[in-house]
Design a protein that fits this description.
Strand content of chain B: under 5%
Oligomer: heterodimer
Number of strands of chain A: 0
CATH topology of one domain in chain A: Rna Polymerase Sigma Factor, Chain: A
CATH superfamily of one domain in chain A: RNA polymerase sigma factor, region 2, helix turn helix motif
Number of helices of chain A: 9
Largest interface: A-B, 40 and 28 residues
Strand content of chain A: under 5%
Shape of chain A: globular
Distance between the termini of chain A: 35 Å
Number of helices of chain B: 8
Structural class of chain B: mainly alpha
Shape of chain B: rod-shaped
Radius of gyration of chain A: 18 Å
Radius of gyration of chain B: 57 Å
Helix content of chain A: over 70%
Largest sheet of chain A: none
Number of strands of chain B: 0
CATH class of one domain in chain A: Mainly Alpha
CATH architecture of one domain in chain A: Orthogonal Bundle
Chain lengths: 192, 164
């Protein structure tokens, strides 16, 4: 029910964008900006690249407004563009990228504050180490498995929707996720 | 219910159960099964640990100027679109003319560049003979005239009375 309501809402906004309503585009942007950028960030693990790709996603959405048809859920379409861009970027950068870059990024990234009460230096360090471990474990997954896990875990997408985004069957997505989580469990089991 | 791990069927139920997303009848079935199945219970526990670990990874907040940059790109795209649109109707007319104009330009340029320093006309022996012949004849006639005068002078020298 909630999903169909969301479909109607986003698709309706997009149809208004199609009619030249810029404010509806701003609403869509405000609603999905963070989730798309965060998905891309977790995919490519580089903040500037993720924002650049996210800009490209919304630019493509805007440019496609005239040909837009609400055939599928708006978020399916949106994530399909995002996943396509991320997978292409990862493929192109694979030869250049190395584990070193990942390490550099994680070292260069500012330490995130633990929410609520002020954490001690030791707590912050432990948290950072654990987050880095999670990042590495996710980065070690094959690109498609990573995309599936991120959409399933962080965007709470249904299997059918992930299947549409990744252009594969629902059963393929289920087995993709099962294998991906298995790998992650093996790497992160000690984090209990 | 059959064990999802042993049968490898409905394994997604275990994932959803660990994530707290399983609802209704399926949830009741799995809860009942997990109470008696050690493998499934262990799977769910490990998956919950993983789920919590993944929750720790919060992404960086989106840049404040994200929208401003995006709208700038949209505006730039609009300007480029209008430029294309302005020139688009003319395209069918001027497009075929471009290679033609280029070819003409090439020919003109090659003609202008290929300017010989001095034109040397081919020497036709017949023409040359024609040019020289009247002079030779003239000179020959002059020579004959001179000879005739000489002969006259010589005759007068031998017989002066004759010249008188």
């Amino acid at each position: 029910m909630g999903a169909s309501a969301a479909l109607d809402c986003d698709a309706e906004l997009m149809l208004r964008v199609k009619d030249g309503d810029g404010a509806s585009f701003a609403l869509l942007l405000g609603k999905h900006r963070a989730s798309v950028t965060h998905f891309l960030y977790r995919m490519v693990q580089d903040r500037s690249v993720s924002e650049e790709l996210a800009q490209e996603v919304f630019l493509r959405v805007y440019r496609s407004r005239e040909t837009y048809e609400p055939a599928a859920k708006f978020t399916t379409w949106l994530y399909r563009i995002a996943a396509h861009l991320a997978l292409n970027w990862l493929r192109d950068a694979k030869s250049e990228r190395s584990q070193e870059r990942l390490d550099e990024t994680s070292q260069g990234a500012p330490a995130r504050d633990v929410a609520d009460c002020a954490p001690s230096v030791e707590q912050r360090l432990v948290h950072k180490v654990k987050v880095d471990e999670v990042r590495r474990a996710v980065a070690a997954l094959p690109d498609k498995q990573r995309a599936a896990v991120l959409m399933h875990k962080y965007d709470e997408m249904e299997y059918s929707q992930i299947a549409k985004v990744l252009s594969c069957s629902e059963s393929a997505v289920k087995s993709l996720l099962f294998r991906a989580y298995e790998k992650l469990r093996m790497r992160l089991v000690h984090m209990a | 219910m059959d064990c999802p791990i042993k049968t490898q069927e409905h394994t997604e139920w275990l994932l959803d159960y660990a994530a707290g997303r399983l609802r209704g009848e399926r949830l009741a079935q799995l809860v009942g099964h997990a109470e008696t199945c050690g493998d499934c219970a262990r799977f769910v526990t490990a998956q919950r640990v993983l789920w919590n670990a993944l929750d720790r990874w919060e992404p960086e907040p989106v840049s404040m100027d994200f929208d401003r940059r995006l709208y700038r790109r949209i505006e730039a795209g609009k300007a480029a679109f209008w430029i294309r649109r302005l020139f688009c109707p003319l395209q069918p007319f001027w497009r075929p003319a471009v290679p033609l104009a280029a070819a003409c330009l090439l020919i003109v340029a090659s003609v202008m560049l290929h300017k010989p320093q001095a034109v040397i006309a081919p020497v036709d022996p017949a023409v040359r003979v024609e040019k020289i012949e009247p002079e030779q004849v003239e000179r020959t006639l002059d020579d004959l005239e001179m000879l005739r005068e000489l002969e006259v002078t010589a005759d007068q020298g031998d017989n002066p009375a004759k010249s008188l």
